[in-house]
Amino acid sequence: MKVAVVGAGWAGLAAAVAATQAGHQVSVFEAAPTLGGRARALHATLPDGTSVVLDNGQHLLIGAYTQTLDIMQRVGALSTELLLRRALSLPFADGSGLHTPDWATQWIAPLDALAAIARARGWRWSDRLALLRAALAWRAAGFRCASDLTVAQLCHALPARVLQQLIEPLCVSALNTASEQASAQVFLRVLQDALFGVRGGSHLLLPRVDLGSLFPQCAVQWLQTHGAHVATGKRVRQLHWCNPGWRIGEQTFERVVWASDASNAARAMSECALNAPPALAGALREWAALAADLRFEAIATVYLWGEGVRLDQPMLALYSTAQAPSQFVFDRGQLGGPTGLLAFVVSASAHDAAAVQAAVLQQAQDQLGLRNLQVVQTVVEKRATFACTPGLRRPAQTIAPGLLAAGDYVAGPYPATLEGAVRSGWSAGS
């Protein structure tokens, strides 16, 4: 079978690997000159003149991302040189927060996460017990709740300390949606896999290399070695139904996996419907309407540099407010980058780059005691993820016969994460 994959982000590459492994003849078309979609590398210069490779947004993986880790292993991208694996740890600069004790790091789930909760620094025993009771109640209910429930409603009885130091940062980082608006059901699914799923599901995996080197480059090498064709700078401008199959340019494919972002996909399907048979055109327009109706949230990554700066940990949690918007900071110097380079992540960002940048500089001074930091670059992805709200209708994977969508926005149990993208891509390509 001839298979075309349009888009070479993580979803598209996962679809291409799955289709190639299934023995199909695969062609990948990517409009951009680089691979990886939103998870791609950028080039910048530090204030001291040093060239550096950044990311188009700092990412974090967890051990529960089983499909992502599996496909990375398949293409040779999973190693300790590329990822730093750490047991669940969300420390703040003041020493408080979650920390898995060394003696519990090899325990099976959920005992390792429960040990981290039991040993949370700065928490009262009432805080710990309240969270443990809630977690066990969620498990007893099969991690299911009413579809219209928000995370804030689900967790309203938890102590303020637990909400501030665990629930809020986990919610906004996993769903990129504030707890007052975020889907409790999707949040519970992430917690289920992370805390009660596979061994090491709660572990944090911090990239030691830029995101282009982490998976896309290895995936392309694997694809080319196994006979797939990968073309960058190749925009697919038109898609035509030619019973049977789909035509891209002069080529006809029995299956097309459309793996671009939701807005591009909605536009492409609407255009394709103009020349499609009536029944097919209706399906294309219906799918495009769902994709176009998605509401998006921004993610900002503020890269700052200070000579000789080093954090106590490769990653620290931050107290986030409207005036102090960053939830996490990563010490890139401890993750394979130059000393002094820090990446501050602002999920669900609501301000422009200049305002976010100024607020993060002040936050670094107030919470980390770091003065005289210099700005390297601020990256704002305005349409980074869809708003993961209760009862959200997401477009289906199957658009029409032989035409499938792949992306983190496609209907599925996960929010807009790398795991959601990879799962969608693998399913579409298999």
What does this structure look like?
This protein is α+β, with helices and mostly antiparallel strands and 430 residues long. The protein folds into three domains: 2-38 and 215-294 and 391-429, FAD/NAD(P)-binding domain; 41-83 and 205-211 and 296-386, Polyamine Oxidase, Chain A, domain 2 (Alpha-Beta Complex); 88-202, no CATH class. 34% of the residues lie in helices and 23% in strands. A hairpin with a 2-residue loop joins strand 20 (398-400) and strand 21 (403-405). The protein is globular and about 65 Å long. The mean pLDDT is 92.
Largest pleated sheet: 6 strands, mixed
Low-confidence stretches: none
Q: End-to-end distance, in Å?
A: 12 Å
General shape: globular
How much of the sequence lies in strands comes to 15-25%
Count of domain modules: 3
Radius of gyration: 22 Å
Helix content: 25-40%
Question: Looking at CATH, which topology of the largest domain would you report?
Answer: FAD/NAD(P)-binding domain
CATH architecture of the largest domain: 3-Layer(bba) Sandwich
Our count of helices gives 13
Tell me the total number of β-strands: 21
Give me the CATH superfamily of the largest domain. FAD/NAD(P)-binding domain
Order of strands side by side in the largest beta sheet? 10-2-1-14-21-20
The first-level CATH class of the largest domain is given as Alpha Beta
Kindly state the mean pLDDT as a whole number? 92
Derived structural class: alpha+beta
